Every structure is written in C-alpha cells, then in structure tokens.
C-alpha cells in the first residue's frame, strides 16, 4: 500500500498539479476572449467542447512538465535530488510512458473539438518537447519557446470558436502570455544558484507592459471599473516577491518570484475573463488561485 501511494504521489509531483490549474484558466480566459460566456452557455455542444479543451490542456501541460523532468534527470541528481526521478521513486521509463500518454490524450481531446484545435495541441506538445530537450539551454530561445507554449494554450481556449464572436483581431492577444512567461522563464534560470538584478528588472518592465495591455482592453470592453481591481491584485502577487528578489537576488528569493509568477497567471487570466465576460466569470477564474496555492505547498511549482 505504501509503495502504491508513493508511486501515485511521485506521478503527481511530476505533473505539477498547481501549474495545471493555471493552464486550465488559460483555456477559460481564451474562451471568454472569443465570447463563449456570452453565447455558448446555452449550447450543450459548446460546453462539451470547452470541457474537452480543458482535458486537452491537462494532458498537454502535464505531459510537458513530466518530460521536463525526464530530460533533466541527470542534472536533477545534482541540483534537485529530491525530485521523483533522481530519488528513485519513478523510473525514467515510467515517467516517459506517463508523459507520452498525457500528450496523446491532450492532442486527441483537442481534435474532438475541431481540426484547428487539434493542430494547436500538436504545436503545443511539439513546442513543449523542443523546450524540454533543447531550447531551455538557450538564453533567448528558451524563454521564447516556453512563452510560446502559453500563448498556444490561450489560443487553444480561443479555438472553442473557430471564428471569434468578438472579432478576429483578438487572436493576437496570445502574444501577451508569450511575453509574460518568457520573462518568468528568463528569471527562473537563476532560481538554483542565484543571479543578477538585470533579468529581474527586465521581468518587471515586461510585467508592467502586460498589465497595461490588459488595462487597455478593459477600457475597450467597458469593464474599466472592475478589471483594475483584478490587475491590482495580479500586480501585488507578482511584484512583491520580484522586488524582494531584486533587493537580494539569491536562489530562494528568485525561486519564490518564479513560483508567484506562475501562480499569478490565474490572476492574469481572471483579469482577461473579467474584461471580456464580466465580473462574475472573472471571480470564478480567480477562485482557482486558493486551490493552486494549496497544491503549490504540497507539490513543487518550479
């Protein structure tokens, strides 16, 4: 019994449950951007499609982070020996099977919605594997590819409608999480050994631009009285640990900044959802945050 429980916990640790919740909110935010909550809640088929996309992102994100640990197994023996693979709880073969299964499930779930959704899922899975195996070791390409995974994930949510009911020009919004996650990934390189202030300053500037863009859209959609509250909370979540890390760029401080950068995605997605679907739906997305924080205490985020 202890052996089975140990294995199950090992698999869960590989999948980063707290992070998966942030990926689910990407899908909800993407659906809100294209008008799903204004037009799709009365249609059972549309609801089922959204559920399939949520299943897809669970598989894609889970598979991506599992393969991250598979490819980092040798390095983790030195830097993170407590992780499931280097500690011997999960073998590389077992982790590879789990990661492959999750990616396949994610892709198939997306194809049940549409061919367009399916190919976005294929690109997401490919980008995750490219990042895990090669790009993460490149100072520029790594953050961009990791950001691309998030941008594609938001696009996956938007693909619940092949044509946006709010306007096709909205597809470029997927660039915003690319920039945001690229900044988080950039500073994550120093979370083990510590680093310099420069990447943290760049992240601070990028965060400000992201908040500004969402603010502009809240004005365009007439949600200027509610979205700023979400943005203020989002800024507090991500800037508080970032400023602490800027004062003392040690490994633990940078690690906390990265953690809250990832968890802060829920607040960012709540702001997007509030901007395009209204306050109640934004609050629903924000309700994922306490659970993600709890899971973040039980399972590693970075």
- Bulk shape: globular
Helix/sheet category: mainly alpha
The proportion of residues in beta strands is under 5%
Through-space gap between termini: 29 Å
- Percent helix, as a range, is over 70%
Outline the biggest β-sheet.
none
CATH class value = Mainly Alpha
Strand tally, please? 0
Transmembrane segments: 20-41, 47-67, 88-110, 144-163, 169-188, 200-220, 258-275, 281-300
Subcellular location: Membrane
Protein name: UbiA-like protein EboC
InterPro entries: Prenyltransferase_related (IPR050475), UbiA_prenyltransferase (IPR000537), UbiA_sf (IPR044878)
Helix and strand topology:
Layout: H1 2-15, H2 17-33, H3 36-39, H4 44-71, H5 73-79, H6 92-111, H7 115-133, H8 141-158, H9 175-188, H10 198-220, H11 227-247, H12 251-277, H13 279-286, H14 288-298
